[in-house]
Amino acid sequence: MSDAQAPEKRRAPAKETKNSKEGDERHDAIYRSVSDAIVEQRLKPGSRLREDALADVFGISRTGIRKILQRLALEQLVTLTPRRGASVTRPTADEAKDVFDARQLIECGLMPDVARRMGEKEAAELRDMARQERQALRSGQQSVAIRLSADFHMRLAQLSGNATLAEFVERLCSRSSLILAVYGHPGHLGCESHDHDDLIGYLEAGNGERAKAFMSRHLKAIEASLSMVEEEENVPDLQQIFGG
Amino acid sequence: MSDAQAPEKRRAPAKETKNSKEGDERHDAIYRSVSDAIVEQRLKPGSRLREDALADVFGISRTGIRKILQRLALEQLVTLTPRRGASVTRPTADEAKDVFDARQLIECGLMPDVARRMGEKEAAELRDMARQERQALRSGQQSVAIRLSADFHMRLAQLSGNATLAEFVERLCSRSSLILAVYGHPGHLGCESHDHDDLIGYLEAGNGERAKAFMSRHLKAIEASLSMVEEEENVPDLQQIFGG
DNA sequence: GTTGGAATTACTGTATACAATAAATATCGG
DNA sequence: CCGATATTTATTGTATACAGTAATTCCAAC
User: Measured in angstroms, what separates residue A153's CA from nucleotide C22's C1'?
Assistant: First the structure.
């Protein structure tokens, strides 16, 4: 992972500040680093994200960290509670339903456009992504597989040519990873191995309607694989006591 | 005595800072204030938003302003260019197309759900909003009318029960206001007066499919009313010179 | 041993100071 | 008088200091 090497506490030498990166890119890299960690479930829902700790790890001040956390909060990957700070969002069952309904509407609606704009190059790229995903899954790298699966859906949306809708899909896929982390069964990954390949086939054949129907079933299958029990990790004893 | 070198560091009237508001709500109020000004086109696309100026106007420091600007940037209402600061976004023709395609897909797709959840109270509320909009239009308050029109579409999406999609629609409507500001004809408002009332009728009757079709036409009509000429306010002389 | 409360601690919220850079302006050479 | 470069200025980027508040710990009393 992105090694924030020895946290040399000396941060003052302004002349040294500039040598490493444009500074702007650095922020983006850190954002992506945190975002990836969440999507890959290395940071689990509910984990607290303290500003000082992150600032130390990445070697920038809290100011920059706050900016990044705020962005993640707007994307609903982290939750910002007023005086408690940031933590990785733990999606509720309602939110999960909303997200999958939204994916149903948008991703399926995009399939005809994607089919229309699908060329050889795009198909090859997608097949490669699907291959990588299968490989990660086979070699037991579940975290990586989850992200690759999300990447696949995101790339698909980008190929529709509508940047705005692609951005929406991006957000929905990120949140889906969080949902899988909370409500998915450990051994059972969201996307079945062959689904993505089949989908590429329909799209490459220019069969938008078929792809649409397939995507609908695909998403339904993922959603159906979730076990929608709100685990109330806090004070569960109380209920047991009252029940008993 | 040696502590005499420590002058009274108090430089800010901290006691007065807190008395007025919770501080958190204040930020939200400022955010809404700026957002409304953009949506109502009192701040025109391209206008620069300097941090100091905003900080002065609202009586908070640049820190808070930056937070708000960043949020607006993520919603694509303002554009943040690296060392140039913030300005009200000027949507391109491509973006405009994307936004209206997205609205076409999402808002129309939501209509059946809205029709299903439509009750007396909701219909009455919508009718009231439509009435206010008509009134604003008649009394020449175009800015207010534009925002009320956007509010109508947003509220409609909320009634679908899907908070995630409602948020997407919210963003799309805000951006649409910007698009109208750039590409719309001055005297010609986006939403025709009677359209919204007609739509409520279909929804109240539970006729989701009819409402869907109507919404589609409604949005198409708005989009068709735009004149999609990219005014390249920058270096236009060059082309004219070379052409002439 | 548990509970209530006070003191401490840890953390976030906000403003400000300072550095860095791009834009605007002035200055000088042609 | 025009063009290129140096200087000044305006404005953003970042770190840090300080304040305020929630969480924790510790202590005493029952």
Answer: 40
**B132 CB-contact burial (10 Å; exposed 0-12 / middle 13-18 / buried 19+):** middle
H helices of chain B, in order, are: 14-19, 24-39, 51-58, 62-74, 93-117, 120-138, 142-158, 163-183, 195-204, 208-224, 236-243
Q: Which residues pair with B48 in a beta bridge?
A: B87
Q: What is the DSSP string of chain A?
A: -----S--S----HHHHTTS--SHHHHHHHHHHHHHHHHTTSS-TT-EE-HHHHHHHHTS-HHHHHHHHHHHHHTTSEEEETTTEEEE----HHHHHHHHHHHHHHHHHHHHHHHHH--HHHHHHHHHHHHHHHHHHHTT-HHHHHHHHHHHHHHHHHTTS-HHHHHHHHHHHHHHHHHHHHHS-TT--SS-TTHHHHHHHHHHTT-HHHHHHHHHHHHHHHHHTS-------SSHHHHHHHH-
Say how far apart CA B192 and CA B218 lie, in whole Å.
8
State yes or no: pLDDT of B18 exceeds 90.
Answer: no
Closest CA in chain A for residue B165: A102
pTM of the model: 0.88
Give the residue from A66, A94, A164, A175 with the most B CB atoms within 10 Å of its CB, the best one to mutate: A164
For residue B140, what pLDDT band results from cuts at 50, 70 and 90? confident
pLDDT in tens, B83-113: 999 999 999 999 999 999 999 999 999 999 9
Burial class (CB in 10 A: 0-12, 13-18, 19+), B36: middle
Question: What pLDDT digit, counting tens, does each position of A118-127 carry?
Answer: 999 999 999 9
Tell me whether A31 touches chain B (CB under 8 Å): no
Report the C-alpha gap between B70 and B54 in whole angstroms: 14
Amino acid in position A169 = V
- Cβ contacts of A203 within 8 Å, gap of 6 or more: A111, A114, A115, A118, A123, A126, A211
Q: Which two tokens stand for residue A72?
A: 């993640």
Q: Tell me how far apart the alpha carbons of residues A93 and A21 are, in angstroms, rounded to a whole number.
A: 41
Q: Please choose, from the candidates A37, A39, A43, the residue with its C-alpha nearest in 3D space to the C-alpha of residue A1.
A: A37
Q: What is the pLDDT of residues A20-54, one digit of tens each?
A: 445 578 899 999 999 999 999 899 999 999 999 99
Measured between alpha carbons, how far is B80 from B89 in angstroms, rounded to an integer? 9
Q: What is the pLDDT of residues B34-44, one digit of tens each?
A: 999 999 989 99
Which of B65, B72, B77, B105 would you mutate first to test chain A, the one with the most A CBs within 10 A? B105
